């Protein structure tokens, strides 16, 4: 908070916020007084963070959050539509940024429900939320399964040791998600990715 500043018959105080995903940039409080010098009104002005510039690639701030999600105890929540048309959600600790426009996930069972579902309906949603830093990323994308050895090797090598200890290298496969949109806030500023579906 700033020092109190007199402005005519009012007193103003300003505050700035530490870097947090969903916090405003600043706050102004203006105090008005009655004839007995008692506070009669407090006006609050919230100054939002600057709107993020649109991008067609995943920004570095989002990359860092996604790649460190599991280590930060905030694994990504992934949603897809199964073969019966019902929505499904699960936590995927192997989620990583694969390229400037793609995410990857190591799917432990290449014969499992997610693999079958994505072949029929590639639309997916992902959510990152860290309440401690008030960081949120909401992602929409289109997924496809990769069995190519080179791609699978790369995705496997990217995931953390705790995921590799499940020993699913032979039973699993790589899921690549083409990001269509990503929105949210991080301690380093807002995120607004928009690409053609």
Please provide a written account of the structure:
This protein is an alpha+beta fold and 197 residues long. Helices cover 15% and strands 45% of the residues. The strands form two sheets. Strands 5, 6, 7, 8, 9, 10, 11 and 12 form an eight-stranded antiparallel beta sheet that branches. The chain has a four-stranded antiparallel beta sheet with strand order 1-2-3-4, with no helix packed on it. It is elongated and about 80 Å long. The two termini are 45 Å apart. The model has no long low-confidence stretch (mean pLDDT 91).
**Termini Cα gap:** 45 Å
Radius of gyration of CA atoms, rounded to a whole number = 23 Å
Q: Please estimate the helix content.
A: 10-25%
Mean pLDDT equals 91
Report the β-strand fraction as a percent range. over 45%
What is the number of strand segments? 12
Low-confidence stretches: none
Number of helices: 4
Major sheet attributes: 8 strands, antiparallel
Shape: elongated
The structure class reads alpha+beta
Which H/E pattern describes the elements? Answer: EEEEHEEEEHEEHHEE
Topology (elements, then pairings):
Blueprint: E1 5-7, E2 10-16, E3 26-33, E4 39-47, H1 60-67, E5 76-81, E6 87-92, E7 96-99, E8 102-107, H2 113-120, E9 123-130, E10 135-146, H3 149-158, H4 161-164, E11 173-186, E12 189-194
Antiparallel strand pairs: 1-2, 2-3, 3-4, 5-6, 5-9, 7-8, 8-11, 9-10, 10-11, 11-12
Observed structural traits:
12 strands; 15% helix; elongated; single chain; eight-stranded antiparallel β-sheet; four-stranded antiparallel β-sheet; 197 residues; alpha+beta
């Amino acid at each position: 908070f700033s020092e109190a500043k007199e402005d005519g018959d009012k007193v103003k105080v300003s505050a700035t916020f530490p870097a947090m995903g969903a916090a405003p940039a600043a706050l102004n409080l203006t105090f008005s007084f009655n004839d007995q010098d008692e506070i009669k009104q407090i006006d609050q002005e919230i100054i939002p963070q600057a709107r993020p510039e649109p991008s067609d690639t995943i920004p570095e701030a989002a990359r860092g959050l996604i790649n460190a999600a599991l280590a930060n105890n905030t694994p990504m929540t992934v949603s897809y539509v199964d073969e019966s048309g019902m929505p499904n959600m699960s936590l995927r600790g192997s989620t990583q940024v694969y390229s400037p426009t793609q995410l990857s996930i190591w799917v432990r069972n290449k014969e499992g429900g997610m693999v079958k579902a994505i072949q029929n309906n590639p639309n997916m949603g992902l959510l990152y939320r860290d309440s401690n830093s008030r960081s949120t990323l909401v992602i929409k994308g289109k997924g496809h399964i990769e069995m190519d050895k080179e791609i699978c090797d790369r995705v496997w090598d990217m995931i953390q040791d705790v995921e590799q200890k499940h020993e699913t290298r032979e039973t699993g496969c790589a899921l690549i998600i083409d990001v269509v949109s990503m929105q949210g806030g991080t301690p380093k500023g807002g995120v607004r990715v928009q690409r053609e579906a």
